[in-house]
Write the structure tokens for this entry.
Amino acid sequence: MKSAKVSRREAAQVLGLGAAASAALVSGVSAAAPASPSVVSAGPSKVAAEEAPVVSAGAHTAGQLVAPLVAGSQLGRWKVAAVLPLREGAISVVMARGSGEHFQLDVVARGQQRAPGETDFFQVMVVNRGDGSTSTHEEEGLAAMALADVIRTNEHTAERTGFLSLEQRAERARNHLHEVHES
């Protein structure tokens, strides 16, 4: 019997990993600490200003975009190990499999190249040190789709300044290498 090829995106849609299922994927994270540094106050604060934690703009942006996920949150069958701040046009989310093995997902501005996770404004890329021709591990691609579902709920209100597409990031890297070789 000959089987037809089915893309990961089609398989995920059939399996119900779309936006309607994102609430189930992030179950258990609503009780997690807020991803943004906003504070709800019931009265005057007794904490001195110098004792308040300082949160970089890049960390705030990352927190807004992937809220309610924070380090330690569960996203489907994966655990969020770290949410790293906006740097060089992307935020990175380090995920852990059930075995404890880590992998990285980068969130970049939407560009021309296809990505496992895509939203209106962003793409979630699996960092596998490939050049686009390296096969994506199924598990990592599904995690990218699940993270895109979370981002989809936040992207219209989160800060988008500073994000670059994969193509823009590659161009910057080429320009930097050119500058280094000319020096």
In short: The two ends are 61 Å apart (CA to CA).
